Amino acid sequence: xxxxxxxxxxxxxxxxxxxxxxxxxxxxxxxxxxxxxxxxxxxxxxxxxxxxxxxxxxxxxxxxxxxxxxxxxxxxxxxxxxxxxxxxxxxxxxxxxxxxxxxxxxxxxxxxxxxxxxxxxxxxxxxxxxxxxxx
Length: 135
Description:
Elements: H1 3-46, H2 48-52, H3 54-76, H4 81-102, H5 110-133
Helix pairs in contact: 1-3, 1-4, 3-4, 3-5, 4-5
């Protein structure tokens, strides 16, 4: 095997591993979102004021989970930060949309677009900032 073929094989393996890390970090971010949203639901049962503000708090929870999963994806991945963060945000968005469709709450509206944009922007920005912070 020539030297270029060995480098191509290493590059192929590192891209595959980086994609796998992006998927794993998206699942971690999704788990974090589930835990925090469950905590929000438990707290809003006893507090009526929190119940009325829960939609806005849910957006904050989405942003936090996307930020953390973007940081995790960038830390372990060899891909560029913008690609890794965008891919992570896309996978996390797919998981959230699948959850909404399973529970029958999926309606194509401005709220769904806001949710997807929050996830994509938070994940990408955190990946870029963290990648540049490491240097």
